[in-house]
Design goal:
It is a single chain. The chain is mainly beta. It contains two helices and nine strands; from the N terminus they run ββαβαββββββ. The strands form three sheets. Strands 1-2-7-6-3 form a five-stranded antiparallel β-sheet. The chain is globular, with a radius of gyration of 15 Å. The two termini are 22 Å apart.
Amino acid sequence: MTASSVASVSVTPTTVLFSLMRSSRSAVGLLGADVLSVNLVNARHAELARKFAVHGSERFTPEEGWEYLPDGTPVLTGASASLVGHVTHTVELGEAVVVVAEITEVKRGDPGDALVYRNRAFHRLPDDGAPTS
């Protein structure tokens, strides 16, 4: 899935949170998994982020740059960072589920230009801070 927002919760233990629709296939898979990865993408991944935001698109293909950890967890090799961990808490709010995950491993990559989502579109945010489409 493509999360429009991932937030840091705590440094010790390293913890992040995000939300997803409870009825989505992503929620079923993610909430049933022992391990998860949160891949922080950059501007090079705009098309991949769009693809993962659409229901039913083919995902986790080798052409997209995925590799698998020994336990089968997918990580995006070109991501700015891949955060590997497990769900510690969930909170159901309406149709959404807020997921809190403790991060146990960080795989650092090339930061690249930032990718932001604004007004229903992805935009590249270069180092100078001036957004481009």
